[in-house]
Amino acid sequence: MYLQTQLPALSDSNKWVDYVGLRLLQDVEIEIGGQRIDKHYPQWMYIWNQLSLPLGKRHGYDLMTGSGDTLPPNSPATTLYIPLEFWFCRNVGLSLPLIALQYHEVKINIDFESAANCLQSGTLATGVDLGSTTSLWVDYIYLDTDERRRFAQLSHEYLIEQLQFTGVETITQNNYRYKMNFNHPCKEIVWAISCDAINANGNQWTNFTALNGSWQSGQTSALASVPGASNLVNTNANTTNIQLNGQDRFNARDGNYFSLVQPYQHHENVPYNRGINVYSFALKPEEHQPSGSLNMSRIDTAVLKLDTPQLGSAVSATCLGTGSLYVFAINYNVLRIMSGMGGISFSN
């Protein structure tokens, strides 16, 4: 499932933001029978592809979604293709059986971002609606008569993945405790901190480091050349710890452990963007077959403890003030389909 959109030509020195195809979306959700099943956000789509996309597909993905390297200033009209990341988009065996949902509508709801937030510099003509040129492309699997009858008459249960995100949290202090209000068996927690002062300077929405202007997709030389560029500046967290019911899950670890070691152990890629942090309860979180999880519904209090001394200090002169914390969790659930209707088995 893909979104296709047409970007207008830019004039003068106007420039799109990094990965403008993702930034174009505020959120995208799938709804079955009026019930929201899953909801994704551009920050998550960017982070997930930094972690899971094979290196051989990186250049193609950058072209499809409009990374900063592929859309220079004054770029001509461009067509982008944005892959969606719902559970049935990544595994053909989990394809959504529309023939079994005769009495429930399946909807893809999309909220589009304003044109101003999709530009790093310059402005667009008044009244430009970037969402008006967007189409949704879907691949269908056609069944023969016997298969259609079986799918329509039998009940189905699918193990699916859902994304949990409780909203952006503002960090204004060095030692921050984030209460993770998640549910269900979660196989992975992913977090990133965006320095608000940096993000406001040219809309660097994919910059999760404390270095202004140093991060562009696929570039690491700028990070290495900055004097004193340590893990603290690169990852926006000096140390991190997770507490479950008041007990440490592990001793506080260096920020590099979550931005380098954990992705190396559990993912296809170690992200170029060092501000992406991971802790996986599963051995292989990218695979559909479960290999470990933490049942957050059975945990009374789960806390993510972050040491962020660069916020409001002189560690990074470009990252003073507040930061925006994004924390995502991936959980398992069961999609049950019977009698022409569908819904998830376990609600929040």
From TrEMBL:
Major capsid protein N-terminal domain span: 14-144
Residue ranges of every copy of the Major capsid protein C-terminal domain listed in the record: 147-343
Pfam families (alphabetical): Capsid_N, Capsid_NCLDV
Single GO MF descriptor: structural molecule activity
Protein name in UniProt: Major capsid protein N-terminal domain-containing protein
Species per Swiss-Prot/TrEMBL record: viral metagenome
Upper classification of the organism: unclassified sequences, metagenomes, organismal metagenomes
